[in-house]
Amino acid sequence: MTTEKKLVAAAAALLDAGGEQAVTLRAVGQAAGVSHNAPYKHFKNRDALLGAVAAADLAEMAAALKRVRRSSAKPARKLTNALKGIIAYSSKHPARYQLLLNDPRFATLEGDFEQAALSHFDEFDSIVRECQDAGTLPDVPHTTLTGLLFATVHGLISLEASGRMKPEKGLAGIVPSLELMITLLELACVSRTGPSPPA
Is pLDDT above 70 for 107? Predict the structure, then answer.
């Protein structure tokens, strides 16, 4: 493993253990087992290092989505598995997830981050298109539907993380809410075209 990758892995571990406040270039260097000056040779500043962590996580999530897409599951099951994978990641790495998707510092990053973000979106979009081809999702612009599904899962995760997901507000949990939305989308397909083959 290169020094740069060691530093990114160490920063990710510190994020998991103590949140963003635990990540300093000195602490990362120490955790990676390199000199305290080493991080400065690879990253311009702390934000650049955090951006590298976010890019690595996006690439990892894209790879996970690719495995789901290439699986033998039927399209609707692939969609459910993909969404559950995103939820599982947010639960396992909450600080990294917040950094990845809710931090405005990284919304306009280019290079590795932009490439990983596009790959992540494209893998999910391919699963959405499979569902559309199978007749289990409406025939609307696929990128619009992909964006809607992404926004929904991320919104639900944020609601749960902030303690605002309450049954009395009609939200029983992230997975049940997503499953209801997918069922409603499937029903929209049935109402327009008639019953589709089992997913």
Answer: no
